[in-house]
Amino acid sequence: MSIDPIISTGVEISDAEMRSIQDAIMKRYGIDFFNYESKSFKRRLQRIYRKFNFKSSFDLWSRTLKDKDFVHDFINEVSVGLTSLFRDPEYWKTFKSVCEEHFSNQYRVNVWHAGCSSGEEIFTTAIVWDELGFRDKVRSLATDISSNALEKAQSGRIIKPKLSEYERNLKLYNSKADLYRYFKEDENEIILKPYFLDKVKFKNSNLIMEDYGVDQYDIIFCRNVLIYFDGPAKEKVMEKIYKALKPGGFFIIGFLDSMLNYLPEERFEYYDLRQRIFRKL
Ligand SMILES: C[S@@+](CC[C@H](N)C(=O)[O-])C[C@H]1O[C@@H](n2cnc3c(N)ncnc32)[C@H](O)[C@@H]1O
């Protein structure tokens, strides 16, 4: 029998309670969580209740206001970091040929991983860049709102229990690829060889609040991040992404991100709709 998390915590969260917590975080720390889709935000709050043993929204609300350190735990719990090496292997095959076609003759390629989580997307691109001979010309910015996730990403570490899934994905992408060309083995984990992260800059940043410049990037990944945002937030973030992409630059989302309403055809070419690859006109 499955247990509904609402029943197991014994705490129902009303819209008003959710808003008062979002309000507290905004007023105290200037961090905007108002635009998260409310059902999934409430589920995340319930996880926090369970983990920190809160009995009511008031407990959570007052802890948020009183305990400055708690906000980091809060953010780490609220942001869901599900990711994988070569997540959606077919997509990565297409991505590689797109890069080969468009960037082989370009001296520098600027890439932004928005919502990079614990780094698997960056480790994946490191392998693709290496295969394409792009290692020296790619400069990447990797951002996430979760400091825990960023710390993991920066360490280049993958724990061994995840390996069978990751190796399977890698082989589906390229049956000849050898994970140990890129990673060295430790007791409980494998670690990306440091030079593969040499040209990646990591930054803690909230997509909703920060600006990312104009005509900066050749490629922007925002895979499986916008899924958690409501309509107005998607619109706001898309405006920044559109500005930050160079004309002709590629924008890539995940398979579950329903974004077509925010990608008008006068702004984006639907370059490969199946693999969710768009191109700024
Ligand atoms: C499901 S993971 C996706 C990871 C990776 N892009 C992938 O597809 O494998 C979503 C990531 O988005 C981050 N995120 C959520 N809200 C964010 C925000 N407002 N600003 C920046 N990152 C955010 C989360 O912390 C999480 O690491």
Write the layout of secondary structure elements.
Blueprint: H1 5-9, H2 15-29, H3 38-52, H4 57-66, H5 70-78, H6 89-103, E1 109-114, H7 120-132, E2 138-144, H8 147-155, E3 157-159, H9 163-173, E4 183-185, E5 189-192, E6 200-204, E7 217-222, H10 231-244, E8 245-253, E9 268-272, E10 277-280
Parallel strand pairs: 1-2, 1-7, 2-6, 7-8
Antiparallel strand pairs: 3-5, 4-5, 8-10, 9-10
Bound molecules: S-adenosylmethionine (SAM).
**Radius of gyration using CA atoms only:** 20 Å
End-to-end separation in angstroms reads 51 Å
CATH class of the largest domain: Alpha Beta
CATH architecture annotation of the largest domain: 3-Layer(aba) Sandwich
The largest sheet, given as strand count, sense and whether it forms a barrel, is: 7 strands, mixed
CATH superfamily of the largest domain: Vaccinia Virus protein VP39
Strand order of the largest sheet: 6-2-1-7-8-10-9
User: How many β strands by DSSP?
Assistant: 10
Ligands, ions, cofactors: S-adenosylmethionine
As a percent range, the share of strand residues is 15-25%
Q: Number of folding domains?
A: 2
Structural class: alpha/beta
Please report the number of helical segments. Answer: 10
> So what's the overall shape?
globular
Series of secondary-structure elements, N-terminal to C-terminal: HHHHHHEHEHEHEEEEHEEE
Rounded mean pLDDT is 91
Q: What fold name stands as the CATH topology of the largest domain?
A: Rossmann fold
Low-pLDDT segments: 1-9
Question: Helicity range of the residues?
Answer: 40-55%
